[in-house]
């Protein structure tokens, strides 16, 4: 995945300001930053559903959003995109049919996201955390080579968050590339690489250890605050 000088305007205002970076195959890259910093807009651009003002986004050798990428890229939006009146299993059977994924994938992804006990519940009756996992399960259908996951662990308890990060690591081990957004700094250390964002800019791009070393910070939240101060030109 390659992004070059990406610019996006919304409502007449530029919200992404010339972003450039690469995402190596089989890596877990975290997008971290406060709400409103541009993470979701960037992820929409990566999957080709965001109108861009300038620059290029290339995924698996094709332009983002190309028809050939439909079954190769999985996308989980921040707001669950499942049908409220269908059960978990019915939702997944429907989306598997749309994507041309094997019906056997339904049981697999239900198990991977830990929704076995809720498979026959309608989406309307699920908790927020269960909805997030159902949404993630849709993105896992088929054999996506790239997963773009917008706040996939929001609303989950620490145990479930740990289990999902173990799943992300397992997927990366199979060669799947993951871009995972979050505003929770304690998740940052689980990634191979971090893009720290603020106000539509990338403040820093590096490994968690590298960012801590660069800023002399003990943790990534402190490193992020140091980088903000550095960008503003004030002492850290």
Task: Describe the fold and architecture.
- This protein is of the alpha/beta class and 236 residues long.
- Helix content is 33%, strand content 25%.
- It contains 7 helices and 10 strands.
- It has helices spanning 39-46, 88-99, 105-112, 128-140, 158-173, 208-215, 220-232; strands spanning 2-10, 13-22, 28-32, 54-59, 62-63, 73-76, 146-150, 177-182, 193-198, 201-206.
- The strands form 2 sheets. Strands 6-7-8-3-9-10 form a 6-stranded mixed β-sheet, sandwiched between helices. It has a 4-stranded antiparallel β-sheet with strand order 2-1-4-5, covered by helices on one side.
- A hairpin with a 2-residue loop joins strand 4 (54-59) and strand 5.
- Helix 3 crosses helix 4 and helix 6 packs across helix 7.
- The radius of gyration is 18 Å and the shape is globular.
- It starts with a strand and ends with a helix.
- The mean pLDDT is 91.
Question: Which features characterize this protein?
Answer:
236 residues; four-stranded antiparallel β-sheet; six-stranded mixed β-sheet; alpha/beta
Rough outline: globular
Determine the number of helices (DSSP H or I, runs of at least 4 residues): 7
Helix content: 25-40%
Give the oligomer, counting copies of the same chain as homo and different chains as hetero: single chain
Instruction: State the distance separating the first and last CA atoms.
Output: 33 Å
Q: Using DSSP, what is the number of strands? A: 10
Low-confidence stretches: none
Structural class: alpha/beta
What Rg, in angstroms, do the CA atoms define? 18 Å
